[in-house]
Queue: 2 jobs
Job 1
Amino acid sequence: MTVGVEGEEAPRQGAAGGESALTVLLALGANLLIAVAKTVAAVLTGAASMLAEAAHSWADTGNEMFLLIAQRRAARPPDRNHPLGHGREVYVWSLFAAIGLFAVGAGVSITHGVQELLNPEPAEDFVIAYVVLAVAFVLEGVSFLQASRQVRAGADRFERDVWTHVMQTSDPTVRAVFFEDAAALIGIVIASAGIAAHQLTGSAVPDAIGSILVGILLGVVAIVLIDRNRRFLVGELADDRVWNAALAELSAQPEVERVTELRLTLVGAGQVYLSGAVDLVGNPDEATAATQLAALERRMARAQGIVLAIISLSSPGDPTLAPRERASNGP
């Protein structure tokens, strides 16, 4: 039995979680190498944009660590104290990562850029900066291609465009790596332009402005990621297509006459909590109905992506649910 959430398998079932882990590990390795190289280059050149990029890469490296912790903790199975599992931990730790990106990446970049405007200092050894930025662009590009590949695969499965999928996917680690790598590539271009303008004009102002622009870019990305994690922590409903799939699965059960209530709440990456009400075939007595409902709950809870199912009897007169019209956007 498969209901599925956003075309992704739940992390506890392995496939999507394994690919997400690969995406994060690749980003972590790339960002660590880049952060060290940019730091050395910032010290040697004295370029404000290079220091901003170094802060950016160190912030990204710390974020990937948070994302790995998020995946590990969220993958723990349900227990007595956590009947819905630990899936929402992925949003908590991803929220920490986004806040870190805002505080460290954006804060340091903007602060240093402003200081450079007020107290400009000449830069030197520009070739070192260009070489490091070129290598960083290649490494960030490799990481971005992996994140993009995973996003495109998910978008194709869920029949929506890439931008909608990256914004609506319940897997915050993929969204975080995708946005961070995209911001890193744009940031490298901004830093290169700032350093080149510094070299050509002899003025530190373009370099300082580049640092500030990198900081603003990181701030915008961080705010987007913070908002998405906040919404999932509060509790979003699953996409209409997932809802329709669950309705079809529940309606197809042999003991179900009709479904009158169905709610799907996201409780983790690719994981939902299902609750609803049904009419049973043949109007069984109370004891038989209780037995059938319990069996139905267990069967639905074994479906891909459903961590818990609670199903009750319909109230008299409740209308039968019909499939929802196909939505172009997510929840």
Job 2
Amino acid sequence: MQQRAINAVLTGVTGTALAGMLVAGVVAASDDTAPGEQQFLTQEAVAAQQHAVAPQQQKAGKETSAGLAEKREAEKKTSAGAAEKREAAKSKSSDTKREKKDPDVLLSGTTTASYFWDDGSGVRGDTGAPASGKPMQKGMFASPSWPMLTKVKVSYNGRSVTGFVGDRGPGEPSHRGIMLDLDTYTFRYLLDGGKPESKYVAGTGQGHLKGLKWEVLDWGKGPGKGKPQPFGS
């Protein structure tokens, strides 16, 4: 009776031990396969993540490319705008130059000028009344070849006077390049802005203006149009 009880106890212990060993084996087997499965699952997760990230990267790349394209387009527009401004500035500058040029000028040049005052007094070689029949006056010039009453603008030292051809002269000096005689008042004003000592004397000790600019604004009736020619030529 006692022996059977002992055997029963041993059987129970042995069964329990075997059961524990079986459970441990199962667990061990389960643990042995776990790394492979975990690795497989990890690779799948990485692949899935890469698959999910790739479209985002592509999208980001497209957005960056689009941004660069917009930037280049904006730069082109800016460059085009700058070019238009430069062209506008050039056009404005050209317009300004055209506006400064007197459209009424028919002919222009430079010469050396002297002065005179012919009123019939006989002073300083006065030969009498001017050839045009007009009385001697301020703004009357003498030319060796231009038609009478030709309208002329003369400029010197930043000052200008508009007058007309009313007499012939200068005589022999025109052969030496002195192609205009100015009335005494015009001569002195162009020289230094002053007034002459008298009608017959400029009062400066200087009898010629070299480099005087002349501009023909209107030709008088008669021959002689063009560059001034020496007296009697």
